[in-house]
UniProtKB/TrEMBL annotation:
Signal peptide: none
Residue ranges occupied by any PRISE-like Rossmann-fold domain in the UniProt entry: 79-366
Native source species: Arthrobacter flavus
Gene3D superfamilies membership: NAD(P)-binding Rossmann-like Domain
InterPro entries xrefs: NAD(P)-bd_dom_sf, PRISE-like_Rossmann-fold
Domain of life: Bacteria
Protein name: SDR family oxidoreductase
One Pfam family in the UniProt entry: PRISE
C-alpha cells in the first residue's frame, strides 16, 4: 500500500476536529491537505492566516504567549492535535527554553478542551544530538531504533517529549512522537526546505552554465541514507492518532527506501538538465557557492515569471549544507511502525520529482 493509499479514518474519527500547529510549514501543510481531503474539520494554527480552503478555519496565534493561545482557542474544541512547529534559536539552551514553552503553552491552553490525542513531530537529532553538538560523543549504531536511550546532552526534543508526557498523564489524552529524517515537501519561506533549496540551486546552475556540485561531505556522498516525504509523515501522524497501536508510542518515520547521494545526485541533475559533479577533496557548501546569487535569482524571476522574487524565501542554504555535510551515516529503522500496522512507503526519488513538478506548476522554479 502506498502512502496515498493509507486507510482513511472511520466516520467516528472524521467527526472530530483536528488542530494542526505550524500549519504553514512543510509538515503542517501536508497534514492540512490530507485531513481536509479525508473530510476532517481542520483548525490551522500559524502566525498568520493562509489561503482559504474548504473545511479549514485559520487560527492565528503566538505560541510564545499563553494568553494569545487562550484567546485563539476560546471558541473551538479540537479533539486531535498535531504539533509540527518549532522556533530556531542560537543555542540549544535557548531552543529548549523557547520550544518547550511553546508546546507547554499550547497544552495549557487546551486543558479544558476534549483532546483525545496529541501527535508531536520531532526528528533524528533525537539520536544525533542538537546542532551545536551534532554527532559528537557516543551515538547509537545505525539504523537508529526507537528504544535507544537519550544522549547525555541537552536537546529540545527531549524537553518537548517531557512536556507532552506530563500533560498526557495529567489530562488523560494519548500521545505519539514522530521522529522524521530530513522532510521534503511543499512550503515557501521555510527554514528547513531541502527540496526547494536544491531546485533553486539547480535552476541557478542551469541558467549560468555552472556544474551542479554536491555541497556535502565525503561521508554523505558515499553512505546510505534516507529521507521523509511530508505526505508520508502526515499519513503516519494521522495513523498514530487514530490507531490503537499508535497510542503512547514514539516512532521513527522515513520513506522506507535507502539511497546514496552519489546515486541520487546524478538523478536530480538529469531531471534538471544540469551536469553533476560529486564530492572532491572537501565540502563545497551552498552558502559559499551561492553567496551573492540574489541578483541572478531576480533575473530568473523576471525571465520566467516566477512567483517568489526573494531567494531567501526559496532557499535555505545553511540547512541543506548542514544536512549534507554530516560526517556520519544516518539511517532510521521503521520496523516498529511496520509491526504496529503502518504500511506507508514512498520512493525518495519520486518524492523529489513529484515535488519539483508541483513547484514548477506553481511557478516557484523555472
Amino acid at each position: 500500500m502506498s502512502h496515498d493509499e493509507q486507510a482513511p479514518p472511520s466516520n467516528e474519527q472524521r467527526g472530530g476536529t483536528a488542530l494542526v500547529v505550524g500549519a504553514s510549514g512543510i509538515a503542517g501543510s501536508a497534514l492540512v491537505e490530507k485531513l481536509t481531503d479525508e473530510g476532517w474539520q481542520v483548525l490551522a494554527m500559524s502566525r498568520s492566516a493562509g489561503v482559504p480552503r474548504a473545511n479549514v478555519q485559520y487560527v492565528p496565534a503566538d505560541l510564545s504567549s499563553l494568553q494569545s493561545l487562550r484567546d485563539a482557542l476560546a471558541e473551538v474544541a479540537p479533539t486531535y492535535v498535531f504539533f509540527t512547529a518549532w522556533a530556531r534559536q542560537d543555542t540549544e539552551e535557548a531552543n529548549i527554553r523557547v520550544n518547550a514553552a511553546m508546546l507547554r503553552n499550547l497544552l495549557d491552553a487546551l486543558a479544558d478542551k476534549p483532546v483525545a490525542h496529541v501527535a508531536l513531530m520531532t526528528g533524528l537529532k533525537h539520536y544525533l544530538g542538537p546542532f551545536e553538538a551534532y554527532g559528537e560523543g557516543d551515538m547509537p549504531d545505525t539504523p537508529f531504533h526507537e528504544e535507544e536511550p537519550r544522549l547525555p546532552v541537552n536537546n529540545f526534543y527531549y524537553a518537548q517529549e517531557d512536556e507532552l508526557w506530563a500533560a498526557a498523564a495529567a489530562r488523560g489524552f494519548s500521545w505519539s512522537v514522530h521522529r522524521a529524517h530530513t522532510v521534503i515537501g511543499h512550503a515557501v519561506g521555510n527554514a528547513m526546505n531541502m527540496g526547494l533549496t536544491l531546485a533553486a540551486y539547480a535552476a541557478l546552475c542551469k541558467e549560468s552554465g555552472r556544474r551542479f556540485i554536491f555541497p556535502g561531505s565525503e561521508t554523505q556522498w558515499n553512505s546510505l541514507t534516507d529521507m521523509t516525504d511530508a505526505g508520508l509523515l502526515a499519513d503516519h501522524m494521522v495513523w498514530a492518532a487514530t490507531s490503537p497501536n499508535g497510542a503512547n508510542e514514539a516512532f521513527n518515520v522515513v520513506n522506507g527506501d535507502v539511497f546514496r547521494w552519489r546515486w541520487m545526485w546524478q538523478q536530480l541533475a538529469a531531471y534538471f538538465g544540469v551536469e553533476a559533479e560529486g564530492f572532491k577533496d572537501e565540502p563545497r557548501t551552498l552558502e559559499v557557492q551561492m553567496a551573492g546569487a540574489e541578483p541572478q535569482w531576480e533575473q530568473l524571476v523576471d525571465a520566467h515569471g516566477l512567483a517568489e522574487p526573494r531567494l531567501d524565501r526559496v532557499a535555505s542554504w545553511w540547512h541543506t549544507d548542514g544536512d549534507l555535510g554530516r560526517n556520519l551515516e544516518v539511517v532510521a529503522d521503521m520496523s516498529k511502525s511496520r509491526v504496529a500496522g503502518f504500511t506507508g512507503y514512498r520512493r525518495t526519488l519520486d518524492a523529489f520529482t513529484d515535488l519539483f513538478e508541483r513547484y514548477r506548476a506553481e511557478k516557484l522554479i523555472p
